[in-house]
Amino acid sequence: MSADPLGALGPKAPPRKNGELQFDELWESRVFGLTMSLHEAGAFAWGEFQAELIASIGAWEREYGASEARSDARPRGAGRAAPSPTSGAGFHYWARWLEAFERLAARKGLLESTALDARAAELAARPAGWDHPKR
Amino acid sequence: MNEHDHDDQHDHAHEPSDPEAARLALRAEALEALLVERGVVRRESIDAIVARYENEIGPLNGAKLVARAWSDPEFKRRLLADARAAIAELSLPVGDTATPIVVVENTPGVHNVVVCTLCSCYPSSLLGLPPRWYKSPPYRARVVREPRAVLRELGLELPETTEVRVWDSSAELRYLVLPERPLGSEEASEAELVELVSRDSLIGVAPAGAPRER
Q1: Which of B51, B112, B127, B151 could anchor a disulfide with B104, C-beta 3.0 to 4.6 Å?
Q2: How far is it, in rounded angstroms, from Cα B18 to Cα B23?
Q3: What does the pLDDT profile of chain B (214 residues) look like in tens digits?
Q4: Which residues contact A7 (CB under 8 A, 6 or more apart)?
Q5: Any catalytic annotation for residue B116?
Q6: Chain A residues closer than 8 Å to B46 by CB
Q7: Is A30 in contact with B34 (Cβ distance < 8 A)?
Q8: Cβ contacts of A28 on chain B, cutoff 8 Å
Q9: Record: fold of B59-203
Q10: ipTM greater than 0.90, yes or no?
């Protein structure tokens, strides 16, 4: 899923089951599925997650993106062109989603951030090739 | 999602050249593992949801809706008056149907375009997941302020006399554009019309496609 095999057909390609591959990395699809699964199971109302997502995206834009993203902001250099409507360089939507979900899970008492930090550190310490067991 | 993907992704995430990508992948892996161990979620339900959104729910649903509306004026009237009820008439493999949807019609004098300024609200039940650019900060910020310029950059030049209406989606309300039926498609069947409706025309950043030469 790292490439975009559907991209060559362009945005005006005939409708298909899905217009493009949505996920560059496996974890992005897992976090999406995790969020939807818990929502469908009634763990939280969609608005609760959305509020976290808006907060996470908004915080990122205030820190990195506002002047890049808004053409009415004062340009940093003379003759600076308006940013492409589709670039959003540096913005990583699924990272914002992950952060939003982490906060919601903590707030709902599903998972403390300390436990998450500890497990992520454990996983990071796995030796190279751990997932390619020798036969 | 199969085992092969798993291996590829791990190789990728462990590239030392991108520590941030690796950090995110590990965090997401830890999150899923802990919630599964605690019995909060099952891996199978995550698998099923991802497969559903990758393979079943997509813009074809929206295209069928539009083709029906072009073919059947009475259906179009119902669709514009109460989209949710009209959508239910077609048995489509849609996702969440709880969120109200409003269909806005393009005419020779009015062009509609949809955005979510705060995050990424989108009629996913009919179009699948939003494209990357729809979620990008520049599109979300600029299409409200200078829709004509953004549409031009995306390849859609509108006459000065056309009024542009920008619809800001939210958790409570999603919008879908009913594009104009292309000239020359008068003879087309409903199935042929479906082929003319692109995802981008349903968001309002492109016209519906011209029919193929017969």
Answers
A1: B112
A2: 9
A3: 444 444 444 444 444 458 888 999 999 999 999 999 999 999 999 999 888 887 777 888 899 999 999 999 999 999 999 998 899 898 876 666 667 899 999 999 999 999 999 988 888 878 888 888 898 899 999 999 999 999 999 999 999 999 999 999 987 889 999 999 999 999 999 999 999 999 999 999 999 987 755 4
A4: A20
A5: yes
A6: 30, 33-34, 37
A7: no
A8: 28
A9: Nitrile Hydratase; Chain A (3.90.330)
A10: no
